[in-house]
């Protein structure tokens, strides 16, 4: 992808699936010329919607709404045009043919947002927020993405960078002060400044565990002995039959995945094969192995117990679940059956998939156990692994700078590296190939 291209590009910014209308976006120096050619209209007041006809030669292709945005007051910072037409397949295909015939080329994935970044309409972090807000599937993910898109997260990084830049200037001017005309740096004040920035970076980085779950969803594995009701629990939580339920032990031979929304959060549920040691069936053995893999890849494990099942076998599974280091929620099932509540000691909650007892409370406990219940709507979260790693790297460099307060040149070098990490996140010094990789993950038309 040629990130410095100044030619005119076009693509539909609406989904390719069927719908009532479709929006074609054009960006580049020839946007207005192309718009005039398509509509046989010469006057377009910037930022106003105009009811127009799209012409295919002398024939009318469609009635449309067209808006011209004069750069830099546009999404990309260039001259832009947006044409909304009826979403017929022929209309869309022919409109693209007419636009390309006028010298416009097909936009590549993420190219509109890349141009917005290159033209200073947003920083790199905000540009990545565009992709996140499109991908958001629940309220919490949408809010986290909106905070990035609005520049709130960028501002925190810029504030940290500003403090470090000011400190670095003070250090470097003294390095260059060969005549000792400048008073020496106050060690206590410098130490406090570095310590304050380290605390800020660590505070931001600490939100990544929650941010990752908000963005990607909470991987939740349901485990237990055969016939403990794991598939029934999956179906009950979903509200429909996703997994096969049978009184025959070992019905589930493979993991069964499903998405569930609990309040503002998304869960990725995995029903697993019952784990036991006396397995001679090859397919069931493969299912048990996949159950173990699901446990180790989960964010939280629901251990589903049955007071009438083999207690030694259940203890072994619970021990294995706890050994993963993941959050484990101990749930006693089948409370509707006589005598099944008799051994609830040690369990976090008692439920019945048949009657629904405890199911709503279980949903609440899942969110509480994973540590998301305390999140506030205006919390700024780190949702990108790259942002997290850059913050950790910056913190590491600043800790090294603290250790070399008496050596100005070494301290300055560590501060420079910390500033460099933050600048890369905002996009002030990002290599072209990295930009191409980032924006290639966008959809075409964005």
Tell me what you see in this structure.
The chain is an alpha/beta fold and 446 residues long. It has 3 domains: 9-123, Gyrase A, domain 2; 127-207 and 382-427, tRNA modification GTPase MnmE domain 2 (Four Helix Bundle (Hemerythrin (Met), subunit A)), CATH 1.20.120; 214-370, Rossmann fold (3-Layer(aba) Sandwich), CATH 3.40.50. It has 15 helices and 12 strands. It has helices at 31-39, 89-101, 111-118, 124-135, 139-149, 152-175, 187-205, 208-216, 230-238, 282-297, 311-323, 359-370, 385-403, 408-426, 432-439, and strands spanning 9-12, 21-27, 49-56, 59-69, 80-86, 105-106, 218-223, 256-262, 265-271, 300-305, 327-332, 349-350. The protein has a 6-stranded mixed β-sheet with strand order 3-4-5-2-1-6. A 6-stranded mixed β-sheet has the order 8-9-7-10-11-12, sandwiched between helices. The chain is flat, with a radius of gyration of 29 Å. The mean pLDDT is 84.
């Amino acid at each position: 992808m040629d990130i410095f291209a100044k030619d005119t590009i076009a693509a539909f910014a609406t989904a390719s699936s069927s719908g009532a209308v479709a929006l074609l976006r054009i960006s580049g120096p020839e946007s207005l010329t192309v718009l005039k050619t398509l509509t046989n209209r010469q006057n377009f007041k910037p930022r106003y919607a105009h009811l127009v006809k799209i012409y295919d030669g002398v024939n009318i292709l469609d009635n449309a709404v067209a808006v011209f945005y004069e750069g830099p007051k546009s999404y990309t910072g260039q001259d832009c045009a947006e044409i909304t037409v009826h979403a017929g397949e022929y209309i869309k295909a022919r409109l693209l043919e007419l636009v390309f015939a006028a010298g416009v080329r097909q936009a590549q994935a993420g190219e509109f947002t890349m141009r917005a970044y290159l033209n200073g309409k947003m920083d790199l972090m905000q540009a990545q927020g565009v992709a996140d807000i499109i991908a958001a599937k629940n309220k919490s993910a949408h809010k986290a993405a909106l905070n990035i898109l609005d520049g709130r997260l960028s501002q925190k990084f810029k504030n940290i960078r500003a403090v470090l830049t000011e400190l670095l200037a003070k250090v470097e001017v003294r390095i260059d002060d060969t005549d000792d005309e400048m008073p020496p740096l106050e060690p206590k004040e410098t130490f406090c400044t570095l310590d304050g920035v380290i605390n800020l970076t660590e505070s931001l980085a600490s939100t990544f565990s929650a941010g990752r779950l908000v963005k990607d969803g909470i991987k939740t594995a349901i485990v237990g002995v055969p016939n403990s009701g794991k598939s029934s629990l999956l179906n009950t939580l979903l509200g429909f039959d996703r997994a096969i339920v049978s009184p025959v032990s070992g019905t589930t031979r493979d993991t069964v995945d499903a998405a569930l929304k609990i309040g503002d959060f998304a869960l990725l549920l995995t029903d697993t094969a019952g784990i036991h040691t006396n397995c001679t069936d090859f397919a069931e053995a493969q299912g048990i192995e996949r159950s173990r893999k699901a446990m180790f890849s989960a964010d939280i494990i629901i251990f589903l117990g049955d007071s009438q099942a083999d207690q030694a076998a259940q203890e072994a599974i619970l021990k294995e679940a706890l050994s993963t280091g993941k959050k484990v929620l101990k749930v006693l099932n089948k409370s509707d059956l006589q005598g099944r509540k008799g051994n609830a000691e040690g369990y976090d909650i008692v439920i019945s998939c048949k009657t629904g007892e405890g199911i709503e409370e279980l949903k609440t406990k899942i969110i509480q156990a994973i540590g998301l219940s305390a999140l506030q709507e205006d919390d700024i979260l780190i949702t990108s692994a790259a942002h997290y790693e850059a913050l950790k790297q910056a913190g590491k460099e600043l800790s090294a700078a603290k250790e070399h307060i008496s050596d100005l040149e070494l301290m300055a070098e560590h501060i420079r590296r910390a500033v460099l990490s933050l600048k890369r996140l905002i996009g002030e010094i990002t290599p072209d190939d990295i930009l191409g990789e980032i924006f290639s993950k966008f959809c075409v038309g964005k």
